[in-house]
Structure formats: structure tokens, C-alpha cells
């Protein structure tokens, strides 16, 4: 069996265009984007991403602070528009299942994980979401949680993430780290490591 492959989700398996989603969410209600971004991303997200705020609490705070007239369901759907599935990448990941142990290590909020778990759980041996474990990348503790929980040695792992700041701690822990910029480059980088990437 080849190396264990550890995937980020947002920016790799899904897109990561939350600013556009927030703009589309608030502008029809006459709310300025900068104000909404301050509340949703800078005030709410840091707490939600480590499990100190649930999905419904995210909605409640955003609705109260911004006077945003959306139900929870409308807010969650609008938020998730920032993370469209990259079906080509997911299909490729699924093709790796017979030859590799696959894991997820991803910063997420509960809104995201409620959507992602049923979509991804059949393909990954273990999924570590920051909101569920109380730590988020680039905190080195969350990488160690993966090793300990899955019985992995860092040198057995290849970590794939779209954010450079998350790659340095992975390398410091002993993992090989790949910077995701495109699907084509991902396949080329994996081939260079001996992974069959058809």
C-alpha cells in the first residue's frame, strides 16, 4: 500500500470562495459587504472553527449583528455556496481508496461539517474537522491528533492543502506536504511521489 494521503477540504475538494457567498447573502438586504465580512468571518468564524459556536449560533449572531432577515436554513445554504464541490477532485480521491489510506484534516465550522460528513465519510478512514476537535491548522496539535488517532507515523503521510501556512507545520511534524493550486498539478505532484494518479 502506498503512502497515507491527508486532504484538506476547503480549497481542495471544494472551492473556497466565501467572500463571494457572503456578498450574495447580504447585498440584497442592503448590508455592506465589509461590515458583513467583519461579523461573519472575523468575529464568528474563529469561534465556530474550533467548536465554540454551533451552526445555529453562527446564524443567530449574524442575524442579530447584521439585522439579516434570513432563516437558519437560508443562512446555511447561502454560506455553503462559498464551498462548491469539485466533483473531479472527489472522483479522483475515490479512485485512490483501494491503494491508499485516506484522511481529512480540515478547518471547518459545523455548517460545513453537517454537509461534508455524509458526502465524504465512505471514502476516508478518518476525518478530523477543527470544529469537532477544538484545534485548527496551523496549530501543530491538530496534526498530532491525526497521527495518534490513526496510528500513523508522520513520514508515512502526504498532506495536501491550498494554504501555505498550513504546510509548514505539516513538514515540521515530518509529513511530506503538497501545495494544491490546481487538479492537474496535484496529480503531477502525486505521481512524482510514486502515487498512481490516472
Overview features:
198 residues; alpha/beta; DNA polymerase, domain 1; five-stranded parallel sheet
What's the total helix number?
10
Q: Which class best fits the helix and strand makeup?
A: alpha/beta
Low-confidence stretches: none
Any idea how many domains? Answer: 2
Query: How much of the polypeptide forms β-strand, as a percent range?
Result: 5-15%
Helix content: 40-55%
Q: How far is the first residue's CA from the last residue's CA?
A: 16 Å
What is the subunit organization of this protein?
single chain
Mean of residue pLDDT? 97
Fill in the CATH topology of the largest domain.
Rossmann fold
User: Main β-sheet: number of strands, strand sense, barrel status?
Assistant: 5 strands, parallel
Say how many strands there are: 5
Task: State the CATH class of the largest domain.
Answer: Alpha Beta
Name the CATH superfamily classification of the largest domain. Answer: HAD superfamily/HAD-like
The CATH level-2 architecture of the largest domain is identified as 3-Layer(aba) Sandwich
Task: Indicate the overall shape.
Answer: elongated
How would you write the strand order of the largest sheet?
A: 3-2-1-4-5
Amino acid at each position: 500500500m502506498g503512502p497515507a494521503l491527508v486532504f484538506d477540504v476547503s480549497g481542495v475538494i471544494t472551492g473556497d470562495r466565501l467572500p463571494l457567498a457572503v456578498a450574495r447573502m447580504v447585498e440584497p438586504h442592503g448590508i455592506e459587504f465589509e461590515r458583513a465580512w467583519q461579523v461573519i468571518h472575523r468575529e464568528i468564524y474563529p469561534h465556530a472553527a474550533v467548536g465554540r459556536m454551533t451552526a445555529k449560533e453562527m446564524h443567530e449572531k449574524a442575524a442579530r449583528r447584521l439585522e439579516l432577515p434570513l432563516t437558519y436554513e437560508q443562512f446555511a445554504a447561502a454560506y455553503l455556496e462559498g464551498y462548491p464541490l469539485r466533483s473531479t477532485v472527489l472522483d479522483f480521491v475515490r479512485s485512490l481508496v483501494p491503494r491508499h489510506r485516506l484522511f481529512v484534516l480540515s478547518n471547518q465550522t459545523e455548517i460545513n461539517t453537517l454537509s461534508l460528513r455524509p458526502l465524504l465519510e465512505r471514502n476516508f478512514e478518518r476525518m478530523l474537522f477543527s470544529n469537532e476537535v477544538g484545534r485548527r491548522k496551523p496549530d501543530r496539535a491538530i496534526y498530532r491528533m491525526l497521527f495518534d488517532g490513526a496510528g500513523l507515523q508522520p513520514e508515512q503521510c502526504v498532506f495536501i492543502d491550498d494554504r501555505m501556512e498550513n504546510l509548514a507545520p505539516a513538514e515540521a511534524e515530518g509529513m511530506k506536504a503538497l501545495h494544491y493550486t490546481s487538479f492537474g498539478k496535484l496529480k503531477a505532484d502525486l505521481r512524482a511521489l510514486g502515487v498512481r494518479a490516472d
